[in-house]
């Protein structure tokens, strides 16, 4: 691990990542999903919320590639629009988790002592709760909104990053360049954010990529239980929820959104593992 | 060893206090009054009836008083009474649900270990072969499959399409009048799908963990020694290697408890199994504060004790720690 300086990125990290075929495949799917969610309105064959009473629950056909749902809406179009929710939730939730985790880890590792003890006990306590219970308990007491979902997933998912960054900070703190920075009179804040933070970020990249996958899974589970993204806004989880109600007559309502989640989560995981391997100097290819 | 144990138990106290504090904060910072839920059922209730209810549940007292009152009751194992219409003690409700969730997860864990250990060892000893790559692929799929989707697909396939397995509950209707054998086979049939779903997700992680633990062990000197003194490859791997590779798995077991309990919400609601997960889901949906807080605290305490037990087991299982200073 180490600093992702420009020359290092170009000379070592990038070629190593590119040689990992699975990571490249995962990364390509991730990029493709960005394009899909940006261009959902051009790509969708139908309006995702227009209701057609004459084609309710029709199976996949040339007209409707993934069939229609219980209101006659085109499932493919809803899946394409649903990718927006997943993308948003993944990035915002992980952004929150990474920000909190990084700050806690930096402060804890740099100052040590009582601050460290208190913050790390907080991490221990938070890790004791079954995360999904905690999320459910908070979400149901709030107005259903995608922003709350992202916040709650972020607020319950920062502990891993905090431990990671703390460990990095502990070793970076002892480096000579930190001593040098202190000698020329840098303030603590400057040392933490200008000297330690950039050098501690590499492993965070890995857990961010894996975290996005986890956040997408959590959001879909919440929407599946009916307390996540509310209809008529399409999300992969709430399409699956109606798939559950009609599972006896309409398998396509359950199959396609599940596949979409599977492929997305798989891609982020492959990308994350690829980054981990590319950053790890012990693995030689 | 005993000093180590004492230290660990002593450390539990601040953690337990932290758990109660976070549980209380989470529930009481949330907007909306629990009394409103009961009011919504009956629009005729006037303001004084509402005040009486608020007073009855102690919701009119200042927050810190409510907190200390709650913790004091908690220390006497009194979790209060449910807000639902039966208003039974929360502890009783949890007591009848907990065994279901624990035994279901226990069966799932046995299945996981039974599969993950041989899979991990085989993948490690056949590193970079087709078998290893196939397993790695399966592991990645396993990480990415949403459990509720898997549950749905199994339900559709084995329950609806083929009609082989019952799709909800733990028993068939009228099974209480059947003989023991028929009763148990009926229950086993009900358990197949939930257990499969419960074990699938962690199976992937567990076998990957087992693989890397085994890879670590394979490079050790004592493995070379074992081979050098002429032991068969089977003894070297499955006796000398496996026993050392199993050690870190104990810690993993402790860490996996919150995930197991949390995951139970999903398959218990889908398969209508009367366990902790279903209880929690229902409580959360009806804003049954005492039950929500009770399940959160008990779930976190279970994790805490699970971690402690795992650490102690680790110390006992590893002679280097057992006989050392510890």
CATH topology of chain A: MetI-like fold
CATH superfamily of the domain at 96-276 in chain B: MetI-like
CATH level-3 fold name of the domain at 96-276 in chain B: MetI-like fold
Give the low-confidence spans of chain B: none
Q: What is the terminal-to-terminal distance of chain A?
A: 16 Å
What composes the largest sheet of chain B? none
List the helices and strands and how they pair.
The complex is a heterodimer of chains A (285) and B (326).
Chain A: H1 6-19, H2 21-38, H3 40-43, H4 75-111, H5 113-128, H6 131-141, H7 146-155, H8 159-173, H9 176-183, H10 188-224, H11 236-245, H12 252-279
Helix pairs in contact in A: 1-12, 2-4, 2-12, 4-5, 4-7, 4-8, 4-10, 5-8, 8-10, 9-10, 10-11, 10-12, 11-12
Chain B: H1 2-29, H2 34-41, H3 47-56, H4 63-75, H5 90-125, H6 130-144, H7 147-161, H8 180-218, H9 221-228, H10 233-270, H11 276-285, H12 289-317, H13 319-322
Helix pairs in contact in B: 1-12, 5-6, 5-8, 5-10, 5-12, 6-8, 7-8, 7-10, 8-10, 9-10, 10-11, 10-12, 11-12
Provide keyphrases for this structure.
heterodimer; A: 285 residues; mainly alpha; 12 helices; 73% helix; elongated; B: 326 residues; MetI-like fold; 13 helices
Structure description:
Chain A is mainly alpha-helical and 285 residues long. Chain A has a single domain, classed as Orthogonal Bundle (MetI-like fold), CATH 1.10.3720. Chain A contains twelve helices and no strands. In chain A, helix 4 (75-111) packs antiparallel against helix 5 (113-128). The model of chain A has no long low-confidence stretch (mean pLDDT 87). Chain B has 326 residues and is mainly alpha-helical. Chain B has a domain at 96-276: MetI-like fold (Orthogonal Bundle), CATH 1.10.3720.10. Chain B is built from 13 helices and no strands. The longest helix of chain B has 39 residues, at 180-218. At the A-B interface, helix 5, helix 6, helix 10, helix 11 and helix 12 of A face helix 1, helix 6, helix 7, helix 10 and helix 11 of B.
